[in-house]
Amino acid sequence: SSGEGSNSTREDEDPMDSDIDPRLEHLVGVPYIWAGGSPAGYTAGLDCSGLVQVAAVALGLLSSSAADRTAQQLADQLEPVTGPVRAGDVACYGSSWSSVSHVTVAAADSDDGSAPVLSASGGGKSTTTPTDGAEVKLFSSEEYRGDFLGWVRWP
Question: Where do the H-state alpha helices sit in 33-142?
């Protein structure tokens, strides 16, 4: 280590990596697979709602036996967030609250609502086998998608 904090390297370009809740770190890099999400077998692949539920189980917010919901069901069944975002909160995306097409999960706490999010997406490809290069990745919630609707939380 050179001790110089001003170096601009690829590692330095993603400061969110150090902010991720340690209970969620193991999810980064899991392959994307449509309809993937069993808490018992998630390493084979996850889709967006599966990721959210596996993360909730890892954080102790959900029982693994209750993890079987679609993105729309998550939006309908969880409570709107009115304060700071906490790790495990769910960001909903779509054209309206009655048409949620994607969800991500807050990977860390955030007082201003700009928490880093973990997302599983196949880049528009619905496939039952892992899509080449598609995996769970960490993103800035502010820059992830333009159709952000808001945050919801497990009761």
Answer: 48-58, 71-77
Measure the CA–CA gap between 61 and 43, rounded to whole angstroms. Answer: 20
Going by the DSSP 8-state scheme, the letter that residue 81 receives in this structure is P
Q: How far apart are CA 152 and CA 155, in angstroms?
A: 9
d(CA 43, CA 46): 8
Strand ranges in the chain using DSSP code E only, listed in sequence order: 79-80, 90-94, 100-106, 116-119, 137-140, 148-153
Token representation of residue 43? 């390493």
Type of residue at 88: G
Map residue 111 onto helix, strand or coil.
Answer: coil
Quote the CA–CA distance of 100 and 118 in Å, as a whole number: 17
pLDDT in tens, 49-69: 989 999 999 999 988 877 788
Percent of the chain predicted with pLDDT > 70: 77
- Asked whether the whole model's pTM tops 0.70, one would answer yes
